[in-house]
Amino acid sequence: MHIKSASLIAALALAAASSAQAEIVIDDWSVNQGPYDSSNGWNETVNGNMLGGLRRVFQQNVGGLGQINGEVSNNRLRVSGENGAQNFFGTYWDGENRGGIGGMDLSENGENDRFRFDIITGNGDWRGTFLVKHTDGTFNRAEIDNSVDGGPFSGRVDILFSDFTQTADFSSIEFVSFEIDLFNGSSSASEVTVGTFRVVPAPSSALALGFAGLFATKRRR
Q1: CATH class of 23-201
Q2: DSSP symbols for 97-163
Q3: The model's pTM
Q4: Domain spans in the chain, listed from the N-terminal domain onward
Q5: 99-130 pLDDT, tens per residue?
Q6: Which residues pair with 43 in a beta bridge?
């Protein structure tokens, strides 16, 4: 079957539009927060255009585990730790007074199937852990693959819904959290810088929607 280039471009444009419509931005880090260090610990919130309208950062001061620093600025989340630090920085989208975000459908009726973010820099020994809570009170977690953490890395990272423990239903979510854990031990300092954090459709599903629209248009002609 021959498809004219203009029609193909239209299909790709429709696919891009469909993908953008389903995409949900968890946080673009446009609301600054911090800087913080772990000498005192923290548990603070800011309001803005992030998921649920509120972001909470948390770090418990645990003596002897080394200092960790974190801040949100210039549309980036930055976390770093001194030599020997073994600590974490937690970011939570859990609603006002930790009351949840109202059972949000992150799947957008089944169109979305993954979390996505960009690691601008990732150095040292660290791990990223995601946790979601459902309206029924159950939890599911997923971790960034070892091919990403534990060494120098930069690039796009996708965490599929199917990567989460057990069977996670993303149609009714009460909160999302993202923790960066540092495990330096006696090695060099760690640093992680993260870009926009969002939920997106599978690339193939967006493209399929575009071509479905194209063929529907051709049938009407």
Answers
A1: mainly beta
A2: GG----SB-TTTTTTEEEEEEEEEEEESSEEEEEEEEETTS-EEEEE--TTTSSS---EEEEEEGGG
A3: 0.79
A4: 23-201
A5: 999 999 999 999 999 999 998 888 777 888 99
A6: 58
